[in-house]
Amino acid sequence: MKNFNGKILFLDRSDINTDEIIPAKYLTESTKAALKPYCLEDLILEGFDPKRDLAGKSVVVTRANFGCGSSREHAPWALECNGIDLVIAENFARIFRQNMFNCGMLAISLDKEKIDALFREFSKEDASLEMDLDNKKFTVSGGGKKAVFDFEIGDFDLDLVKAGGWVSYVDARF
Amino acid sequence: MGRTVAQKIFDAHEVARPGAGVRIISLDRVFCHEITTPIAINDLVSIGRDRVFDPEKIKAVIDHVSPAKDSKTAEQGKTLRDWTRRHGIRDFFDVGANGVCHAIFPEKGFVRPGYTIIMGDSHTCTHGAFGAFAAGVGTTDLEVGILKGVCAMREPRTIKVVLNNSLRPGVYAKDAILWIIRELTVNGATDQVIEFAGQAVSELSMEGRMTICNMAVEAGATCGICYPDMVTVDYLWPFIKEEFPSKEAALAAYSGFLPDADASYTRILEIDASCIEPVATVKYKPDQVKPVRELEGTKVDQVYIGSCTNGRIEDLRVAARIVRGKKIAPGIRAILAPATPLVCRQALAEGLIADFLDAGFCVTNPTCGACLGMSNGVLASGEVCASTTNRNFNGRMGKGGMIHLMSPATAAATAIAGHITNSELFK
User: Fold this and answer.
1) Could you give the ipTM of this predicted complex?
2) N or C, fewer C-beta in 10 Å, chain B?
């Protein structure tokens, strides 16, 4: 199972689509690792610099409908090869969300109020997250503050994360 | 409690319930193209599982970059081609026989009411036009689909969109779906199925229904579904006539996948179709939609007619009627990409290709290329494209480019005028 702890990248926008996460012109690459330099290259977000802002981050916290658009699994792969295995959002586009779990990554949906609180309290800080998957909660700390958030995750999604993805899950059971 | 279309299809395909609210369903079709499939193939090879669950149920096509534009895309095509040969996948459409996946697969009769279909392409929702459950998936779902013939899906919740009355002349399926997406918003149908019902939908051809279902994903939907009726049966008849004694018998069989009268919906959206007018998108999200009359005069650099949304024969007929005997505006470039070789052949036979060429269009082979900025019509930074495709995302057709989505009629009129304009002016 992956490690979901680390520093947080806050992306303060809704409807970030998979073309923004990884543009189609890079879909001709034959390895996941080749996507690394291009992650979030076309993101429309004021003040965002992908090279500078992605460095050293392990978690993305964002708004609603993250990963909408194309089915490309290159989107989670581009995040994964930049060290990001966990995205927290109000909600996710279905295919993106499934792709995350299918890769053994985590896509956690939180109420708008909790997302607002995360942005309000921690987006200006050098914040980091510590995951406690067994108890379905995580702790965020930064700027001398600390907060614990509960979340929900379905049994099947949890099984996928523990199995390391859908291929290993299926292989063991079907 | 009654069942929706998707629930009935899931009931008929259920393999397992791996957790609350999730079902593993068996697949009738796994469609493949050369962009998202090769990594699945390579992974299956690397883990020692280079097998396919059923070569008859797997269909493959090269469409996103066709013909290959460089070594990398050539390798992707080769990986797919070699794999289809290795596993006896007979329905593989290589360069020359190939077309845009969501146009060529229905055209070949591969989709039936009640089917379950996945493909590594978000616009797989198009095939719901036949009353099927068809969902775009990522490469890992595709990989497992290829290997095991199953896919995990969350229990379907459904929105019903009812288009009452008829579309006005000069208003097309594309206008209707952009109108609906504006109502629903890009997040309004996320992780849900949309059933499209009502008089205006039943009056659409299969081409029009595919246009509507194609863009269901732009509201976040897993699949758009139209109810099978005699229009569906007529379209499918060449492929199913050995299976049924009559069209009526086919329709009776397919009616098993109609929703129950007391089926439960999360939302029912009723729209008076006669109020819909020609529209186009503005900015970078498909729910940012305005009437064409408010965009009148917006300058464009390129016009693109094609794609899995609007590259079918009916679309070409509508556009050709507008450009016939006229020239595209100076300073504009216009590109037509018929979606399949059959569409191209029909358009040739009907004289439509000549209409486009005479008007000054560049007519390309069938490919997805320009729609996602991969080939055959990529925009330069700062350029504006009037396009019949499905996504106006930032950089979608080329870094720094801007896209206005619209119907083939509006696109054709825009090519002639040199700026966005209503096709009614060219009647």
Assistant:
1) 0.97
2) N
